[in-house]
Specification:
Blueprint lengths: L1 H17 L2 H15 L5 H18 L2 H17 L3 H18 L2 H18 L2 H18 L2 H17 L3 H17 L6 H15 L2 H17 L3 H17 L3 H17 L3 H17 L3 H15 L5 H25 L5 H92 L10 H28 L2 H6 L1 H15 L3 E5 L9 H22 L3 E9 L2 E8 L6 H6 L3 H12 L3 E6 L5 E8 L1
Parallel strand pairs: 1-2
Antiparallel strand pairs: 2-3, 3-5, 4-5
């Protein structure tokens, strides 16, 4: 422990003395996460508090927000819910001030979990709804499907059934649109429980049966137990009591095998109440006792096995008592029923074995087909990227050639013409005043043409980029624009070592050129902010202007060459592109590139 503390203090000291703490801050957090399993809750909090102090001293709000969010998560998992909410709310405020929408999304979800645990469901739902809006805006598909499901379940618990149904149906439509069936059983189970609460038993039974089939196929015993339990309630409410008892017993068996003590307790309590309702006090006492024993003990694997054995023994004893009180004339009938049951059981076992073997074969064939499909997709993807790279390389070479021709050939020609005209300068006194004025206009036009060609050559060529590096090229581009346009352009590199990543600097520089060109042509903006940041091996590029924005749906239907080039370059760098804009609200472009 002392050794770790000394290493921690030395790390903080070295960061301060070298003045590179900002670049190593996230690495420091990751290092703490790496040893987190070995630390107690207090040790984790002590280390994160030290990082928080450093972030506050350096006034780095991004790092501070990230640290506070981690502190909130640690406190949440340790049960310190009030302190967790305080840390998370401060992190959320900083993230919103910094425009960190990805951090805001994550913090909204964590806050929703905290408030739901506290028991403030309405507050939890509000944060989840805000998280849904952020995820929809950022098009985070994996996050969206979980948010919709949780919202549906939370709203059902609050008896807000119309809203719950809306989110659950939206989630199912979303899963259908992306051909994702992994979470369909959870949505079916949530809808089945919702319709059970509203009394729509036909719909409830339909969705719960679908959920049971899905969970069974996925070997998810917990989900199977919950959906079977809810189906038992449906059957009880529609007066199919015998079937309801059978399904509830099946739910109990599944929960026991799944080793889910809380679910076993709930189902045992249900059965205890049901047996009491039908006048079976012995059965009621048994299940209530089972629930109490589970509450009073910690259930491990051996404990679960003992409970299963006890339950089977109870059923066997109950059956024996029933048989003893039966009349002698019913014995043969019972033996016949037992024989038929065994025969049916063997037949069912044979059918299940056949079905299992068949399913295994189908899975093997499906897996082989999926493997082939993935290999084909990878080859096509590789070929597509190679083609894009070749196209971009060709474009860059052609731009450089045109730039050289403009500068060397047409520029030289204009210089020669100007020199020839200059020979007339000494003889201007002999020329009438009107020709003198014409001469001046021609010289001005030649100078203007020369400057324009020089500027075009500069814009086309990547010479400055190759010679002086990315940052110098961007700064010269910004200065050239500001010299002739009343616009403020701010470029912040955050000390990202962008010059080390030559494989992307050419494409990133062209993207900046294209975005600035669009802003100058269409946006009527007064200010532009360009920013780079690096975290966990991912380069984040943000471009913002305060112009008039545009309608994304309309723009997507008629993407121009410039925007198509931007998308192709981002794809070639294996990055992701997000554009956030609307009429009257400027444009924000976010690009993430794995390095």
């Amino acid at each position: 422990m002392l050794k770790r503390t000394l290493l921690f203090l030395l790390t903080i000291l070295s960061l301060t003395l070298s003045q590179v703490w900002a670049q190593n801050f996230d690495s420091l957090l990751i290092a703490y996460d790496g040893v987190a399993p070995e630390l107690s809750v207090q040790e984790k909090l002590d280390k994160l508090k030290a990082v928080e102090t450093l972030a506050r001293d350096k006034k780095n709000n991004d790092a501070l927000a990230n640290t506070l969010r981690r502190i909130g998560i640690v406190r949440f998992h340790s049960g310190e819910l009030e302190n967790a909410s305080k840390a998370l709310l401060e992190a959320l405020r900083l993230q919103q001030e910094n425009g960190n929408r990805f951090g805001v999304l994550s913090t909204f979800i964590t806050l929703g979990n905290v408030y739901f645990k506290i028991g403030q469901s309405s507050q939890a739902i509000r944060y989840y709804e805000e998280a849904a809006e952020e995820a929809e805006a950022l098009n985070y598909k994996v996050t969206l499907k979980n948010i919709y499901l949780n919202l549906g379940q939370f709203l059902t618990e609050e008896s807000r059934y119309v809203e719950a149904e809306k989110y659950l149906m939206r989630g199912i439509s979303f899963l259908d649109s992306v051909s994702d069936v992994s979470d369909i059983p959870y949505y079916n189970g949530a809808l089945g429980f919702l319709y059970l609460q509203t009394g729509d038993y036909a719909k409830s039974r339909n969705y719960l049966e679908r959920a049971r089939v899905g969970f069974n196929a996925d070997h998810n015993l917990y989900g199977y137990a919950q959906s079977t339990r809810n189906l038992a309630f449906v059957l009880k409410d529609i007066k199919k009591v015998d079937s309801a008892f059978q399904y509830m017993q099946l739910a109990l068996d599944s929960a026991m095998i799944a080793e889910e003590p809380e679910t076993v307790i709930e189902i045992a309590q249900d059965l205890g109440s049901w047996y009491l309702e039908v006048g079976d006090t012995l059965g009621s006492f048994h299940f209530i006792e089972l629930a109490n024993r589970l509450k009073d003990s910690v259930i491990n694997e051996a404990g679960i096995e003992r409970l299963i054995e006890a339950e089977q023994k109870y059923r066997s004893e109950s059956k024996s008592k029933e048989l003893k009180v039966q009349k002698e004339t019913l014995r043969q009938r019972n033996y016949l029923i037992l024989s038929l049951t065994i025969a049916l059981g063997l037949g069912l076992l044979a059918f299940l074995l056949y079905r299992y073997v068949r399913l295994q074969k189908e899975k093997l064939v499906k897996a082989e087909l999926e493997k082939k499909s993935i290999e084909i997709d990878q080859l096509l993807r590789q070929q597509e990227l190679s083609t894009l790279q070749a196209q971009m390389q060709g474009q860059n070479e052609e731009r450089d050639r045109i730039a050289r021709d403009l500068h060397d050939r047409l520029g030289s020609l204009l210089s020669t013409i100007k020199l020839q005209f200059s020979h007339f300068e000494g003889r201007l006194t002999q020329i009438e005043s009107e020709f003198k004025s014409t001469y001046g206009n021609m010289m001005t036009l030649i100078d203007t043409a020369y400057d324009e060609i020089r500027q075009i050559s500069h814009d086309l060529s990547s010479g400055t980029l190759n010679k002086f590096g990315f940052n110098k090229a961007v700064q010269e581009l910004v200065q050239a624009i500001q010299d002739v346009n009343p616009i403020q352009i701010h470029y912040l590199s955050n000390k990202v070592p962008i010059e080390d990543y030559t494989q992307i600097t050419e494409s990133l520089y062209r993207i900046i050129q294209e975005l600035l060109s669009n802003t100058l042509k269409y946006a009527e903006a007064s200010e532009v902010n360009i920013q780079l940041s690096l975290f966990n091996g991912t380069l984040s590029f943000t471009y913002e202007d305060d112009g008039k924005g545009f309608d994304q749906k309309v723009a997507e239907q008629k993407d121009g060459i410039g925007m198509l080039n931007i998308k192709n370059r981002v794809e070639m760098m294996q990055g992701t592109l997000n554009i956030d804009t609307s009429p009257g609200h400027g444009v924000t472009v976010m690009i993430e590139i794995p390095l």
